[in-house]
Amino acid sequence: MAADMIKAMRIHSHGGPEVLTWEDIEIAPPGPGEARVRHTAIALNFSDINIRRGGFYQKDPLPMPLIPGNEAAGVVTSVGEGVTAVNPGDRVGYVGVGFGFFAKTGAYAQERNVPTERLAHLPDGISDVQAAAVMLKGLTASNIVNRIYRPAPGDHVLIHAAASGVGLILTQWCKYFGAVVIGTVGKDSKAAIARAHGAAHTILYRQMDFVSEVKAIVPQGVRAVLDGVGKDTFEKSMDCTAPFGTLVNYGNASGHVPPIDIMQLSLKGTLSMWRPGVSHFLGDPTRFKELCGELFDLVEMGVLKTVAARTYPLHEARQAHIDAEQAAFAGPVVLLP
Ligand SMILES: NC(=O)c1ccc[n+]([C@@H]2O[C@H](COP(=O)([O-])OP(=O)(O)OC[C@H]3O[C@@H](n4cnc5c(N)ncnc54)[C@H](OP(=O)(O)O)[C@@H]3O)[C@@H](O)[C@H]2O)c1
Predict the structure, then answer these.
(1) In the prediction, which pLDDT does 311 show?
(2) Residue 33 alpha carbon to ligand 1 centre in Å
(3) Which residue among 4, 46, 290, 306 is least enclosed by CB atoms within 10 Å?
(4) 327 lines ligand 1 (CB under 6 A)
(5) Could you report the per-residue pLDDT of 269-289, keeping only the tens digit for each?
(6) Cis peptide upstream of residue 65 (ω within 30 degrees of 0)
(7) Which atom in ligand 1 lies closest to the alpha carbon of residue 206?
(8) pTM above 0.70, yes or no
(9) Mutate to test the pocket of ligand 1, among 42, 45, 248 (most ligand atoms within 8 A of CB)
């Protein structure tokens, strides 16, 4: 079978949003164990920005040119040799195409060949845009609340950037377990959204000292801090945490957390600290599908409400990156091919 021509956003070097270019590329037929997926909705994740900027935590330079993106939903159009798990016409979604998650990008394209073990079938009750908006962000939240720190009823939990894509899902999931969520947000409009999704308290952390604000709400400190902001928030968060509390840094929207002297964990109250990566959590393909099933069930039950994703045409991914870098809007962003 001959290669097909499709359109994709590519980068030829690291840099600002301007390095994203809309190009014609060749795509080979699906190989053994692969399916060709015609994308209908592609997630923008903050890691796409980190990959584009360069200096993300890969040991080796990424081969150029590269197509960013790790997550999409779509329809199977053809399958390679030996494939029985999916059929043409199936609605599917994926998060990464195998280990080396951030090195194996390629979702910012009209079509892509994906190993079928990495594809999850989408239920009828979940739209393609909803799936692209919720999978990686929801599985990141799932990793935290199911494996690292499960809130007990009444626990106070501090969630930084509570109106972000991951933050909104964490807020709802912690509330579902009975936690009292304190959410930091960059502006008033985001505070309203965080509260509408279950935050009991919100703090404008760019304008106020969030440590004293948290202590005013819960003088003994919170049981856990869930932090996707990183550099600007993580160290100070130790001062918000109750003895034996848990700090989870899952992202670096403001930059990498500086090195921390491990003695601080003792001095600040015998704290524990985690830095999860979703790709380890999703390494086993069977587990990935089970976790997608659990996530989709919670969305269909209305426990996790997906705020309407902000959508951009895929060829306008540059603008989507600019808006995400400026933290302009709350919630998830989806690119439409
Ligand atoms: N560990 C993992 O496996 C994993 C998985 C998924 C995501 N992540 C990471 O989690 C973080 C959040 O992801 P997301 O999808 O929720 O991102 P997002 O929706 O783009 O939100 C990021 C939020 O961070 C806040 N922020 C603070 N300083 C910022 C800065 N200098 N530039 C941009 N935003 C800044 C902003 O909220 P305010 O305006 O409220 O301050 C912004 O809306 C990212 O670092 C992402 O890479 C990690």
Answers:
(1) 97
(2) 34
(3) 290
(4) yes
(5) 999 999 998 888 888 888 899
(6) yes
(7) 41
(8) yes
(9) 45
